[in-house]
Specification:
Elements: E1 2-6, E2 9-13, H1 22-29, E3 48-55, E4 58-65, E5 78-80, H2 93-100, H3 110-123, H4 130-137, H5 148-159, H6 165-168, H7 170-179, E6 186-189, E7 194-197, H8 201-210, E8 215-217, H9 224-228, E9 236-239, E10 249-251, E11 255-259, H10 264-274, H11 276-285, H12 288-293, H13 296-301, H14 309-315, E12 319-324, E13 327-332, E14 337-339, E15 342-343, E16 350-357, E17 363-370, E18 381-390, E19 393-402, E20 409-410, H15 412-418, H16 425-438, H17 449-468
Parallel strand pairs: 1-5, 7-9, 8-9
Antiparallel strand pairs: 1-2, 3-4, 3-5, 6-7, 10-11, 11-16, 12-13, 12-16, 14-15, 17-18, 18-19, 19-20
Helix pairs in contact: 2-5, 3-4, 3-5, 10-11, 15-16, 16-17
């Protein structure tokens, strides 16, 4: 059985189909039709809801795409939909701001925008921060109004922030959430389908060994598409989002050890401190809703050739800790990917954590993502360069790309052309020629093979040119 709060109402579910998304649950099981389905793939934000969860003795509010969130993920949390914001006959301040600023026309996307504004208002450090606002709303699309009146509504809502019913009931909500904190493995079982939610790595290892055909569920931003887009049924899932050991980040003298179930939002602060370019890429990884759900382990585990984090992690020399039963092993990430959607992970084995080396003083690390849209889009090419320069000579070079092959991989010929050579643009030109020996990319609807190879070469040139440009010049993230 799972338990969660629907606003302040305690809900207990046991026989619910675990393939049920939060969107379906709200609309079909609870009659809350304010939350809309626009794309069923996490792109449009019309289905945005807010989830409250304990962060120590406080409440933390985050937006999620309800179309990609299975109900099992709500266990021990609070679910807030647009119907909960209005208090008796009075609109919530974020709703009133949308009315005052004419932020809605057809209204289909409006509930999602309202929920993103609600979370923004709750989490705003300052009264109004344009950058924070753009980030909060980047995952919400509107085809009618243009965004200026919606941004005006965000400014009004944040500047005119007043205590609301959620503030008034905060202590009560915290008490309720503490009472339903997960304390043992939970299960949803509809008879023909089941989802288990263990609390420890040891429990996960035991359950997965006994059910090796079960699908591992973390954020679900990729797995849920099998249900919502391809209309498949997932008979057995194991949800790892309640395993505290897999959601923590440990900083040691030499590395960051990131639990595989850590949401990308939580990975940001640790990674941006070491590698600013990694942080920049995470801002463009996807919408805030997706980053609040998606995990670093999931982005690796789905083995997509265009996943954004693997090229960066490969260039940095990251390692995976893999667990099967009582056995653990450590594997360089570059050896994890074998072929398209084929990995070195054994049946019943899972990614426990990712080990990322910490930055070195002499290190030059650059990462670039090229996509059709700046925000919330999939890469056509993703590049990462990790260089060590000593006395003007490249002493070490690790170059990795995504989108150039069936797997994210290093560019061996390019690296060889850089090693022990002067750190000059001329050296970069020779390395660009070598890239043609490393990759024979495919043409698809995102880019042609010729375009991908030229872009990859240009990104290498960009890396070198930025290092040789005057310090006062501003870096511009690559995109098309």
């Amino acid at each position: 059985m799972i338990q969660f709060l629907l606003n302040r109402e305690l809900r207990s579910e046991q026989a619910l189909d675990p393939n049920t998304t939060v969107l379906q649950y709200l609309r079909e099981h609870r009659g809350r039709t304010g939350t809309k389905e626009g794309c069923a793939s996490g792109d449009c934000g019309a289905c945005t809801v807010v989830v409250g969860e304990l962060d120590g003795d406080k409440l933390r509010y985050r937006t999620l795409n309800s179309c990609l969130t299975f109900v099992a993920a709500l266990h021990g949390k609070q679910l807030i939909s647009v119907e909960d914001l209005k208090q008796q006959d009075q609109l919530h301040s974020v709703q009133q701001a949308m009315v005052d600023c004419h932020g809605s026309q057809c209204g289909f996307c409006t509930p999602g925008f309202v929920m993103s504004l609600f979370a923004l208002q709750k989490n705003a450090v300052n009264e109004y921060d344009p950058a924070q606002t753009h980030e909060a709303l980047a995952g919400n699309l509107c085809r009618c109004t243009g965004y200026r009146p919606i941004l005006d509504a965000a400014e009004q809502a944040c500047c005119g922030k007043q205590p609301d019913q959620f503030d008034a009931h905060e202590a009560e909500t915290i008490t309720q959430l503490k009472a339903i904190e997960p304390r043992a493995t939970a299960e949803l079982n509809s008879g023909d389908k089941r989802c288990l939610s263990p609390l420890t790595v040891a429990d996960l290892a035991e359950i997965y060994s006994a059910n090796p055909d079960a699908r591992l569920l973390a954020g679900g931003t990729d797995l849920a598409l099998e249900v919502t887009q391809f209309h498949r049924e997932l008979p057995a899932m194991i949800y790892v989002g309640h395993i505290a050991e897999m959601k923590k980040i440990e900083v040691t003298a030499n590395s960051l050890e990131i639990g595989a179930a850590t949401p990308l939002t939580d990975c940001y602060e640790a990674l941006v401190r070491e590698y600013p370019d990694f942080g920049e890429l995470l801002h463009r990884f996807a919408s805030l809703q997706i980053r609040n759900q998606g995990t670093l382990g999931g982005n690796i585990g789905n083995a997509s050739p265009i996943g954004d984090s693997p090229p960066l992690l490969i260039a940095l020399g990251a390692q995976l800790v893999l667990r099967k039963g009582e056995r653990s092993r450590t594997l360089p990430l570059q050896d994890y990917f074998i072929d398209y959607k084929v990995t070195a992970r054994e049946q019943g084995e899972f990614i426990e954590k990712i080990i990322v080396p910490r930055a070195r003083p002499e290190q030059i690390f650059r990462a670039y993502k090229v996509s059709k849209r700046l925000d919330d889009d999939i890469s056509a090419v993703c590049a990462a360069f990790d260089l060590r320069v000593e006395n003007g000579v490249i002493a070490d070079a690790r170059v990795a790309f995504g989108g150039m092959a069936a797997i994210p991989k290093r560019a061996a010929a390019c690296e060889a052309a850089l090693m022990d050579k002067p750190f000059t643009v001329e050296t970069a030109e020779r390395a660009c020629e070598a890239l043609a020996n490393d990759f024979t990319p495919l043409s698809d609807f995102r880019a042609s093979r010729e375009y991908r190879l030229l872009v990859a070469q240009n990104l290498l040139r960009k890396c070198f040119l930025e290092q040789h440009a005057p310090k006062a010049e501003t870096r511009v993230t690559a995109y098309v």
